[in-house]
Amino acid sequence: MTLRGRDLISVRDLSREEIEEVLASARKMIPYAEGTKVMHPLANKIVAMAFFEPSTRTRLSFESAVQRLGGTCVTIADASVTSMRKGESLHDTIRMLSSYADAIVIRHPSEGSARLAARASDRPVVNAGDGAGQHPTQTLLDLATMQEAFGTLSGLKVVLLGDLKFGRTVHSLAQALALFGCEVVLSSPPSLALPDQARRRLRQSGARVTDEEDVRRAMKDADVLYVTRIQKERFGDLAEYEKVAGSYRIDAALLQDAKPRLIVMHPLPRAGEIAPDVDGTTHAAYFRQSFLAVPVRMALLDAILGGPRRGAG
Ligand code: NCD
Question: What is the CATH number of the domain that holds 87?
Fold first, then answer.
């Protein structure tokens, strides 16, 4: 694996082959993520979690991944208790953290912050979400979920539904789907459409992309319905948010028209976009998706940082 010592800021930092290697390694990590097998390639490694924005799954699955691999974490879970309150810059905070840890995982509300952090750090930096920018490790676990369900990624028809303007998970995922030759259907209220630059990039990479605002029509023949939350916190004007709030909702009745094998995914948290009555259907893949965060992040950290295997296989 060629990821050793490298940063991961955008999905574009990875080739298709590198993504495939992480996914293959993640599959093998599942029993280690469940705790039924043990190995410690991160023994003596410290990973810093620098989270300047709310997080449940991303931070805890990263911390779980580090500890399952025998490493330890130092964590900023709330910027308000750090010296940034005293005016310390992100640059200085990260530079200092890079002398306390072997790698840094960062989440921050500003687009471009993870790239800035990577420049400030002489240790590998992993982007766990930079504003409305990118969320590449979420994409890896999204791909792992699709691959587990269908045995392959190529040729899948994937609907990206919801906030395609501010949603960093879909910005990253769309690029990866293009790499794997998927068909992408963009379904959003017009004011939350995928930004032009992202759309151009998709077209340039040869992806088959169509727009269909109506979710019922978008879902026709789809393999994956990837639902996202409207990113309320990114709206400058809350009145604009109110105009689109509640504009789409997936429930079990709607899914009766879907392909029997369609999977419904969501990076979570959900805020009303998927009704609880979907949870009990065979379509619901979002809780499996959130579990796969652990083996996928283990595979990634092992590739970037891992030493020799220790512990029982
Ligand atoms: C997403 C995020 O933070 O971008 N959550 C996550 O990482 N699982 C999606 C969201 O907050 O809507």
Answer: 3.40.50.1370
For the stretch 18-37, pLDDT in tens is 999 999 999 999 999 999 99
- What confidence score (pLDDT) does residue 313 get? 45
Q: Is residue 17 domain-shared with residue 122, that is, in the same domain?
A: yes
- Answer yes or no: do 127 and 144 share one domain: no
Domain residues for the domain of 249 are 136-290
Helix, strand, or coil here: 30?
A: helix
**Tell me, what amino acid is at 3?**
L
Task: Indicate whether this model's pTM tops 0.85.
Answer: yes
Average pLDDT over residues 84-107: 94
For ligand 1, whether the C-beta of 267 sits within 6 Å is yes
CB 145 within 8 A of CB 292: yes
> Active-site positions?
57-58, 86, 107, 135
The band of 85, judged by pLDDT with boundaries at 50, 70 and 90, is confident
Which ligand 1 atom minimizes the distance to the CA of 268? 8
Query: Are 52 and 281 spatial neighbours (Cβ–Cβ below 8 Å)?
Result: no
User: How many domains, in total, are found in the chain?
Assistant: 2
Helices (H), the chain: 16-34, 57-68, 90-97, 113-120, 136-150, 168-179, 196-204, 215-218, 238-244, 252-255, 286-305
- 57 in ligand 1 pocket by Cβ < 6 Å? yes
229 CB less than 6 Å from ligand 1? yes
Question: Is the CB of 129 inside a 6 Å radius of any atom of ligand 1?
Answer: yes
Atom of ligand 1 nearest to the CA of 293: 8
Closest by CA position to 62, among listed 78, 44, 79, 50? 50
Which letter does DSSP use for residue 193 in this model? P
